[in-house]
Design a protein that fits this description.
This protein has 153 residues and is an alpha/beta fold. The chain has 5 helices and 7 strands. The termini are far apart.
């Protein structure tokens, strides 16, 4: 990892809106407690300006700690609370290490994780396709469960 002038890991964050209106937050370097507020600010800006969903691009993120995960989850909650929010929040990461951290912490249960920005943007244009509803019949009752495309509740 490249080091800055004070031997601290380099961190960069930038955002853009693509032609379909998806707000993309690009994170590069190490996402830890010293950069949590920067990510939260970008996610809040995305929620405020949003009309096409938000993709958090972690494809160039080399490390994420619990404070970075917290920022992602708070961004998801802000997106859900926004009555006009369309498409939700999706994470793009091809890093085995980052995906494993997100999985171990259960983030992938709350926020879809896709292997690339392109796949994440495609997910934004068809969010309903990833969710199906099915009836669960148990003796004496019928309930409805929501399943995400991977067979989890």
């Amino acid at each position: 990892m490249p080091q800055g002038p004070t031997d601290t890991p380099v961190f960069e964050i930038a955002s853009e809106r693509d032609s379909d209106g998806v707000f993309i937050v690009h994170v590069k370097g190490e996402l830890d407690i010293s950069h949590e507020e920067e990510l939260r600010a970008e996610l809040n800006r995305g929620v405020a300006e949003n009309n096409g969903g938000i993709v958090v691009d972690l494809t160039e993120c080399e490390f994420i700690d619990s404070s970075g995960v917290r920022a992602l989850l708070l961004g998801r909650e802000a997106q859900r609370a926004d009555a006009d929010g369309q498409g939700g929040l999706v994470i793009a990461s091809g890093s085995t290490q980052i995906v494993r951290i997100l999985s171990v912490m259960g983030v992938d249960e709350a926020i879809p994780v896709r292997p690339s920005v392109r796949v994440s943007i495609a997910r934004q244009s068809a969010p309903a396709a990833a969710m199906t509803r099915r009836a669960v019949v148990t003796p004496g009752s019928v309930t409805t469960a929501t399943m995400n495309g991977r067979g989890r509740r």
